[in-house]
Design goal:
Elements: H1 3-8, H2 19-50, H3 55-82, H4 91-107, H5 117-147, H6 153-174, H7 177-188, H8 197-222, H9 228-231, H10 239-247, H11 250-280, H12 286-341, E1 349-352, E2 357-360, H13 366-397, H14 402-430, H15 443-470, H16 475-492
Antiparallel strand pairs: 1-2
Helix pairs in contact: 2-5, 2-6, 2-8, 3-5, 3-14, 4-5, 4-8, 5-14, 6-12, 6-13, 7-8, 7-12, 11-12, 11-13, 11-14, 11-15, 12-13, 12-15, 13-16
Length: 493
């Protein structure tokens, strides 16, 4: 095939993405979820409850890697945008990053209990820096690849729906990591009655190998890159100019605001609700509290799965903005309801499963019904909207810079997660929470924690509604942009 024929094929890019590629890309999102969320899920229970590190220091430790990410994420975006090989711009990094990430995750939880607090913190920070470097190598090219899958406005939403499905599967499985670790620990340690480091170590090895390394390499092996011939004709992407260009885009800035608000509210709630479930609603019973948390997370997963077709329908019927208006309004109401949901005194149902008694509090399942759809909608819509923004970027600057956009987006997302977990630690310190007191905390301690849990999602959801209202790209504008780009490429090649 001649060079001219190769470039002319760009005009015939198949807008429909094959089903198997959507599935494989989605499996990559499963790996990305575990890389993104597992440390946040495990940090406080392992390093605070089991290893005795102060909550405020854990918040600081979670924050430190974001300084490093501010360098590595945009740099990886630039490298991926400019990289050329017979395997493509993105795929080699996806494979290498996934394998390295899985190995480092297993090592993260090997800090000996005999170490001092300072030694444990140092180990945690250093291993996080290595882990998140590997995560950057994996996730930035994978995110960019997802933006490139199709130029079609609505097909992008379908692609992101598959990613959202596997992200929800990760959320469902991730919520059971600690109960699973507890079960393993009871088997490994004779006489053990609760969560222990032996169980955490084995669980982390399984997660690292199966859900990070093995799942993560699949997109690098089986997903095609669509813009490879086109990119060879473009000038090199420059890092600083690209970052300035990204933040000069009003749609991008508004999308960043939405992500900041979304992650901040969600992660803060995720950190606080676990402590309320253990110490406020279950009288300090760690096993029951973690089980209730796993049930709650399962509820979010089930609601998430059920919401995917609904959100996709709303996006096609009322545009992407309309779908986000709906879920953020539901989220604001759900934030108010958290004040009433996360209180003791509900009717508890004991389900005998033979090997254990499952304690179920049905009231807490109202929480995912109200707040769960938002997480699915954001996963679907923001990725799809980011792909639209990349088209507008090419329209104005003539470059495909999905790597840079995805990197800036990824860093901001991780930065806000760490800020939120720092906020969780500071909020627990502000509320004067003391793990040594168990359930015997002062009444005002639990009141302050509930205010954080309820107020955060409500306020941020209302602010996100304003940002969505101001977002300017709709189906008509995106279609016009796509048509102009296709015409320009035909004239160029």
């Amino acid at each position: 095939m001649s060079k001219q024929e190769t470039y002319s094929n760009i005009d015939n890019i198949i807008h429909k993405v094959p089903l198997y590629e959507k599935i494989v890309l989605g499996i990559g999102a499963l790996s990305m979820f575990f890389g993104y969320a597992s440390i946040s899920i495990l940090a406080y229970p392992v390093y605070n409850i089991l290893l005795g590190v102060n909550t405020a220091w854990i918040g600081v430790a979670l924050m430190v890697p974001r300084i490093w990410d501010s360098i590595t994420d945009p740099l990886m975006g630039k490298i991926s945008d400019n990289f050329q090989s017979k395997w493509g711009r993105r795929r080699p990094f996806i494979v290498f990053g996934a394998i390295t990430m899985g190995i480092l995750f297993a090592l993260l939880w090997l800090a000996p209990q005999s170490w001092s607090e300072g030694e444990k913190l140092t180990y945690f920070i250093v291993l996080q820096l290595l882990f998140f470097t590997a995560y950057t190598i994996f996730s930035v090219p994978l995110t960019a690849l997802s933006y490139e899958m199709t130029p079609d406005y609505h097909e992008r939403t379908k692609v992101m729906s598959f990613m959202a499905f596997f992200h929800k599967l990760g959320e469902l499985l991730g919520g059971w990591m600690l109960p699973f670790a507890t079960t393993i620990g009871l088997v490994l340690v004779a006489g053990a009655t609760d969560l222990n480091m032996e169980g955490v170590t084995v669980m982390a090895l399984i997660v690292g190998v199966v859900f990070m390394a093995l799942a993560g390499v699949l997109p690098g092996l089986f997903v095609k890159e669509r813009f490879k011939p086109k990119v060879k004709k473009k000038q090199k992407v420059k890092l600083w100019n690209s970052i300035k260009g990204a933040f000069s885009s009003k749609p991008f800035v508004l999308l960043v605001i939405i992500v900041v608000l979304n992650v901040l509210s969600g992660v803060l709630a995720m950190g606080i609700d676990q402590y309320l479930l253990i110490y406020f609603m279950n009288d300090g019973n760690l096993g029951n509290g973690l089980l209730q948390k796993a049930i709650l997370t399962t509820g979010y997963g089930v609601v998430g799965f059920a919401s995917i077709p609904v959100i996709s329908f709303l996006a096609k019927k009322f545009d992407k903005k309309g779908a986000l208006f709906f879920v953020y309004s539901l989220m604001a109401f759900g934030g108010i309801m958290k004040w009433y949901i996360f209180t003791p005194g509900h009717t508890i149902y004991n389900l005998n499963l033979g090997f254990t008694i499952l304690q179920l509090d049905p009231i807490i399942l109202i929480d995912p019904l109200l707040c769960g759809p938002m997480w699915v909608a954001v996963k679907i819509m923001l990725g799809s909207m980011m792909a639209d923004i990349c088209d507008e970027d090419e329209l104005h600057y003539g470059q495909r810079r999905e790597g840079i956009f995805g990197a800036v987006f990824s860093w901001l997302e991780k930065m806000v997660v760490s800020l939120a977990y720092l906020g969780t630690g500071l909020a627990l310190a502000f509320a004067a929470f003391n793990p040594d007191l168990g359930a015997n905390q002062a009444p005002q301690t639990f009141t302050k924690m509930r205010l954080f849990l309820s107020g955060g999602p409500t306020i941020t959801a209302l602010l996100a509604i304003v940002a969505v209202y101001l977002y300017p790209i709709n189906a008509k504008r995106a279609k016009l942009t796509s048509q102009i780009l296709e015409k320009r490429n035909k004239e160029t090649h």
